[in-house]
Amino acid sequence: MRGTYQFDVAVIGGGSGGYAAARTAAAAGLKTVVIEGGTEVGGLCILRGCMPTKALLYAAEVKHLAEHAETWGVRAGKVAFDFAKVMARKKRMIRDFADFRAQQLNAGKFRFIRANAAFLDPHTVRLNNGKKLTAKHFVIATGSRVAPVPLPQLNDVGFITSDEAVALKKLPKSLIILGGGAIACEFAQFFARFGVKVTLVQRSEHVLKEFDPDAGAEIEKVFRREGLAVFTGTKLVAAGRRGKLKTVSFEAKGKRITVAAEEILFALGRAPNTAALDLARAGVKTEPDGRVVTNARMQTSVPHIFAAGDCTGPHEIVHIAIQQGETAIHNIVQPKKPRCMDYRLLISVVFTEPQVAFAGLTEKEATARGIKFLTASYPFNDHGKSLIMEAKDGFVKLLANPKTGEILGGLCVGPSGGELIHEIVAAMAKRMTVHELAAMPHYHPTLAEIWTYPAEDLMEKTG
């Protein structure tokens, strides 16, 4: 397979998608190289995404529970915290995760090169150490970076991003968060629960716009109850300074509103990290934002070049990046037995409290695609185990095929929602119907048994 090329497969990027591709290629006997140019090794999830944010959020949840211990007759006294120790624990954990990933990359059955790469032609990349490298196939897995700011004035005023937020040494007294997606909402609750005065400004009509509106509305309700100022349906118009404070002005419901805080957190999404790759020289087609265009086989417009992870999408989720990397290599190894990505079992989780998670189709997505469905929901404030836990916010919802009763999707806004959603993923993987889910034994009292209520409701409405 090698021919005149130095490598069978060159993977550009050593994050989750890139490592999965390299591991799979090496296991298939291909001569493989991974090229990683980041200042740190590990990828977004380990270094600045999933793992550090969840470590911080769990610390905030422990503090919140301690502050409300009287609910269960427990006197915890005045709850104090040491922010430096909160961040130090997070740092230790992330260092362990990153060190393990670096060990995997360095000890793998492939070559690992620390350098930035840019294409010279479809089979050659130039490294910033002055060397060139050729490969028969490439997998682009360079991840994402913080999206460009929509207001040039923000660059003058100054702001932090999620990259800096997970590494703060001191809490600001007040904070404006621009955005209403998963990153924005998770940081909003984290900072608020550690005593920061938080104002969240979202462009869409609800936060978490990828979910159904009822999910976003529930989180907004909880945020406002916990003291956050939440503005939705806004249009940013200006940023500036007022003394030592930073200001943001926006339009909402026909009015111009200006808010001020010590710091601004820019959380309006991420963009593909592909600008430095010179993809045009390889003939690889990209979207205007730099996103690499691929087919379901993870193949780009150049047949021997593939892509995986955040640089291509359509979902910026770790387990999907891994699946995409593995799929790309399968199709390199076995082109006559191609494998395609299937997003039917898509999962998305936001680790606020309550947690928000969906699997499969949302009502919004099903409606947009013209897919017929029936839906039923059930609230946690009428469920035994959640009442015991004093976890009364949220609900579960199921979507089902009107004729067959097959489960098309599930939504959970509630305690341990990220865990509970996996019951629906398992059911959908086996194409179970609501009839089968309702008949499946569930232990009492558990949170999981709440799924049986909408299932029973739909069972009566479907064939």
Briefly characterize the structure.
The protein has 15 helices and 21 strands.
Structure description:
With about 475 residues, the protein is an alpha/beta fold. It has helices at about 15-25, 45, 50-65, 85-105, 150-155, 160-165, 180-195, 215-225, 280, 320-335, 365-370, 385-390, 415-430, 435-440, 450-460; strands at about 5-10, 30-35, 110-115, 115-120, 125, 130-140, 145, 175-180, 195-200, 230, 235-240, 245-250, 255-260, 265, 270, 305, 345-350, 355-360, 375-380, 395-400, 405-415. Strands 1, 2, 3, 4, 5, 6 and 16 form a seven-stranded mixed beta sheet that branches. Helix 3 packs antiparallel against helix 4 and helix 3 (about 50-65) runs parallel beside helix 7 (about 180-195). The longest helix has 25 residues, at about 85-105. The termini are far apart. About 45% of the residues are buried. The model has no long low-confidence stretch (mean pLDDT about 95).
Helical residue percent band: 25-40%
Strand count: 21
The largest pleated sheet is described as: 7 strands, mixed
How many helices? Answer: 15
Total discrete domains: 3
Shape: globular
Q: Write down the CATH class of the largest domain.
A: Alpha Beta
CATH architectural category of the largest domain: 3-Layer(bba) Sandwich
Class inferred from helices and paired strands: alpha/beta
Mean pLDDT score, rounded?
94
Strand content: 15-25%
CATH fold-level label of the largest domain: FAD/NAD(P)-binding domain
- Please mark out the parts with pLDDT under 50 across 5 or more consecutive residues, or reply none: none
Radius of gyration over alpha carbons? 24 Å
Distance between the termini: 53 Å
Output the CATH homologous superfamily of the largest domain.
Answer: FAD/NAD(P)-binding domain
